[in-house]
């Protein structure tokens, strides 16, 4: 089982900011794979279900970016995720707009959300780095990330978010290289646009739903107890 964390700032005023592209990726994955509804858990919003036959918990911390680790740390400790089972989707200044990279560990490059997460769970988690480009001067960075994407950005942003959602089963399986290859293939110029996946559809392999093991059963019992109390 995997924990997919989308980073951003809570509230409608921030919804279309470049800094919120991690939230956008998490929301697109949830919509494409029929996950939901989002519920309040772990100082954030969560939804869970199968992504390509692999159990995934999606988390959007609602603590604001600089304190994202409080939410991620609580989820990690309660559900006992290993660092290798966590992928954090976030904006990346050092990548050109529309570029995507996946890495484990490494520096946080001044990203306050990553810095907070590292402080709570250590550094060896996966990062899905979504390029938003650099404004050219460090004094312009804050304005750049805390402003909406330009209308022209939709030409690369929407296809990229769709590609991330379509390839998410590869990430859920821990196949980072295949995830990147599928995203690159579907976002290259002239690539055919894939048909949207049917809500809840999963390209499962025999036994895939058992992949979560004890962790998935723990999560199910916990969610059921929460539902009984609501």
Topology diagram in text:
Elements: E1 2-6, H1 21-32, E2 39-41, E3 44-51, E4 54-61, H2 68-79, E5 86-92, E6 100-104, H3 112-121, E7 126-131, H4 141-145, H5 154-172, H6 176-187, H7 213-229
Parallel strand pairs: 1-4, 1-5, 5-7
Antiparallel strand pairs: 2-3, 3-4, 6-7
Question: How many strands in all?
Answer: 7
N-to-C series of helices and strands: EHEEEHEEHEHHHH
> What is the overall pLDDT average?
87
Q: Classify the secondary structure makeup into a structural class.
A: alpha/beta
Number of helices: 7
What does this structure look like?
With 230 residues, the protein is α/β, with parallel strands linked by helices. Helix 2 (68-79) packs parallel to helix 3 and helix 5 (154-172) packs antiparallel against helix 6. It has helices at residues 21-32, 68-79, 112-121, 141-145, 154-172, 176-187, 213-229; strands at 2-6, 39-41, 44-51, 54-61, 86-92, 100-104, 126-131. The protein has a seven-stranded mixed sheet, sandwiched between helices. The protein starts with a strand and ends with a helix. The longest helix is centred in the C-terminal third of the chain and has 19 residues, at 154-172. Helix content is 38%, strand content 18%. A hairpin with a 2-residue loop joins strand 3 (44-51) and strand 4. It has one domain: Rossmann fold, CATH 3.40.50.1470. It is globular and about 40 Å long. It contains seven helices and seven strands. 39% of the residues are buried.
């Amino acid at each position: 089982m995997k924990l997919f964390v989308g980073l951003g700032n809570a509230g409608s005023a921030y919804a279309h900011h470049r800094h919120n592209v991690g939230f956008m990726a998490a929301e697109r994955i949830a919509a494409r794979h029929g996950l939901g509804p989002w519920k309040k858990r772990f100082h954030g919003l969560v939804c869970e279900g199968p992504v390509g036959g692999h159990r995934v918990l999606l988390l959007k911390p609602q603590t604001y970016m600089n304190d994202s680790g409080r939410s991620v740390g609580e989820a990690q400790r309660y559900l006992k995720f290993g660092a290798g089972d966590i992928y954090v989707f976030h904006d990346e200044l050092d990548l050109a707009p529309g570029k995507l990279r996946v890495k484990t560990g490494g520096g946080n490059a001044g990203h306050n959300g990553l810095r907070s997460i590292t402080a709570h769970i250590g550094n060896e988690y996966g990062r899905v780095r979504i390029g938003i480009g650099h404004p050219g001067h460090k004094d312009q960075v804050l304005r750049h990330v805390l402003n909406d994407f330009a209308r022209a950005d939709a030409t690369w942003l929407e296809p990229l978010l769709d590609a991330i959602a379509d390839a998410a089963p590869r990430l859920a399986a821990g196949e980072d290289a295949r995830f990147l290859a599928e995203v690159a293939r579907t976002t290259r110029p002239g690539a055919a646009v894939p048909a949207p996946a049917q809500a809840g559809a999963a390209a499962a392999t025999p036994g895939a739903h058992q992949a979560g093991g004890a962790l998935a059963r723990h999560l199910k019992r916990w969610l059921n107890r929460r539902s009984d109390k609501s």
